[in-house]
Design goal:
Ribosomal Protein S5, domain 2; ten-stranded mixed beta sheet; 30% helix
Length: 284
C-alpha cells in the first residue's frame, strides 16, 4: 500500500487585481497552468495510528505544515478510526516562489490520503476542505488548468497552449503580505468576461504585482530583465519566481544553459491536466 504521488508546480500565466474586499483580501482574475515538475509525496502504512511527515521542513512547525494540516482535516472529516500513515516529502519547489508548492503539497496529501484511507470523497468535497488551507489548494485538487476568480478559488476550466517554460528563482524570498499591503499596488484592473486561452495579444495580460515586487526586490527585476531578452517574461503569483515561455524544449534548454550564475530554477512543460491526477488514475 506504499505509493508516491507528484505535487506539481503551477504558474499564474497572468494575475490581474480587480479590487480589494472588505475582509482585506483582493479580488483576482488569473490563469493557472500546471508544470510537469514539482515535489513528491510518498504514503506508507504505520502500525501505531499516527500521522507522520518526514523530513520536517526548516522553520515550519509541524502544526503549521500544510501537509499535516490537510491530513488532520481529512481525518476529522472522516470521524472514524483510520490507519496510521507515514508521508515522505521530496521537496524540489522553492518555498515562497509563487509556484504554489505548499498548496500543491496539501492537495496531494488530500487526494493521496483519500485514496490511502479509501474515503471516496468527491473532488468537490476535497476542494472545499482544501479552501480552508489556502486559496490555491482547490485548483490543485481539481487538477485542470483554469481561469480563476474571486481570491482564486472560483475556477473555470481552460486550455492554454502547453508550451515549455524556463523558470528562474532569483536569490530572494518574497513577503506576500508586504506586496499586497503596498499603496502603489494596482487594484483596479478591469475584469475580463471570458476565460482567455492566452492567445492573441499577450500584452493584454500581465501580473499586477510585478512592478511592486521589482521595486522592493531588485534581484527579481534583474532576472526579469535578463529573461525578457529572449521573449516575454513574467512574475508568477507574488514571486519570487519568473518565467519565460518557449514553443519547444530545445529553445527553452538553450536559454536555460545561458542563465546567469547564482540563479536557480528549472525547465518544464506546461500541462493542462495535473500530473497528480494522471498518477491517481494509474493507481485505481
Amino acid at each position: 500500500m506504499t505509493f508516491t504521488l507528484p505535487a506539481p508546480a503551477k504558474l499564474n500565466l497572468f494575475l490581474h487585481i480587480n479590487g480589494r474586499r472588505e475582509d482585506g483580501y483582493h479580488e483576482l482574475q488569473t490563469l493557472f497552468q500546471f508544470l510537469d515538475f514539482g515535489d513528491e509525496l510518498t504514503f506508507s502504512p504505520r502500525q501505531d495510528g499516527q500521522i507522520v511527515l518526514e523530513p520536517a521542513l526548516p522553520d515550519v512547525p509541524a502544526a503549521d505544515n500544510l501537509i499535516i494540516r490537510a491530513a488532520r482535516l481529512l481525518k476529522a472529516r472522516a470521524n472514524r478510526p483510520l490507519p496510521g500513515v507515514s508521508m515522505t516529502l521530496i521537496k524540489r519547489l522553492p518555498m515562497g516562489g509563487g509556484l504554489g508548492g505548499g498548496s500543491s503539497d496539501a492537495a496531494t496529501a488530500l487526494l493521496g490520503l483519500n485514496h490511502f484511507w479509501a474515503l471516496n470523497y468527491s473532488l468537490d468535497e476535497l476542494a472545499e476542505l482544501g479552501l480552508a488551507l489556502g486559496a490555491d489548494v482547490p485548483v490543485f485538487v481539481r487538477g485542470s488548468a483554469a481561469f480563476g476568480e474571486g481570491i482564486g478559488e472560483k475556477l473555470t476550466a481552460a486550455q492554454p497552449p502547453e508550451d515549455w517554460f524556463v523558470v528562474l528563482k532569483p536569490p530572494c524570498n518574497i513577503n506576500t503580505g508586504l506586496i499586497f499591503s503596498q499603496q502603489g499596488l494596482t487594484r483596479d484592473t478591469p475584469r475580463i468576461t471570458i476565460a482567455p486561452a492566452f492567445e492573441g495579444d499577450a500584452s493584454r495580460y500581465r501580473n499586477d504585482c510585478e512592478d511592486v515586487v521589482c521595486r522592493l526586490y531588485p534581484e527579481v527585476e534583474k532576472s526579469l530583465e535578463w529573461l525578457s531578452k529572449f521573449g516575454p517574461a513574467r512574475l508568477t503569483g507574488t514571486g519570487a519566481c519568473i518565467f519565460g515561455r518557449f514553443p519547444t524544449e530545445s529553445k527553452a534548454q538553450k536559454v536555460w544553459a545561458s542563465k546567469p550564475s547564482g540563479i536557480t530554477g528549472f525547465v518544464a512543460k506546461g500541462v493542462n491536466q495535473s500530473p497528480l491526477h494522471r498518477k491517481l488514475t494509474e493507481l485505481r
